[in-house]
């Protein structure tokens, strides 16, 4: 299911932080010219936080936030297990939305960390491959 709007009244504090960082990432990417296709595509296999078009490329985003970089930061938290779940969710998305199959695709990560004045956003293109 793709949720364009979330009812935040039932979310845990952790989920609210995740939703806020996904909204931050979406705004950042739209300012860089990407077009939103879907948010929070979920299936049994996993979830894709943002699905966007970057020109003629379908980009499947994982948005990660870490308040503390002691264990490698946000980008390092996208383990091979998480990558596999995202790839399975991408297969499901392409099965459900045949019109998206015409695009080449890539997997990107948006890593968010706290900053002095504002959160720091890092866009890692081609973060992993299928």
Your description of this structure?
This protein has about 130 residues and is α+β, with helices and mostly antiparallel strands. The chain is about 30% helix and about 35% strand. It has one domain (about 10-130): Trna Endonuclease, Chain: A, domain 1. The protein has helices spanning about 15-30, 75, 80-95, and strands at about 35-45, 45-55, 55-65, 105-115, 120-130. A hairpin with a 6-residue loop joins strand 4 (about 105-115) and strand 5 (about 120-130). The model has no long low-confidence stretch (mean pLDDT about 90).
Offer a quick outline of the entry.
With 130 residues, the chain is of the alpha+beta class. It has 3 helices and 5 strands, in the order αβββααββ.
Main pleated sheet: 5 strands, mixed
Q: Provide a count of the helices.
A: 3
> Order of strands across the biggest sheet?
1-2-3-4-5
Structural class: alpha+beta
CATH architecture: 3-Layer(aba) Sandwich
First and last CA, distance: 22 Å
CATH class: Alpha Beta
List the domain count as a whole number: 1
Give the averaged pLDDT, no decimals: 88
- Bulk shape: globular
Taking pLDDT < 50 over at least 5 consecutive residues as the criterion, the unreliable ranges are: none
| Structure summary, number of beta strands | 5
Beta percentage is 35-45%
The name CATH uses for the topology is Trna Endonuclease, Chain: A, domain 1
Keywords:
about 130 residues; alpha+beta; Trna Endonuclease, Chain: A, domain 1; about 30% helix
How do the strands and helices of this protein lay out in sequence?
Layout: H1 13-31, E1 35-43, E2 46-54, E3 57-65, H2 73-76, H3 80-96, E4 104-113, E5 120-128
Parallel strand pairs: 3-4
Antiparallel strand pairs: 1-2, 2-3, 4-5
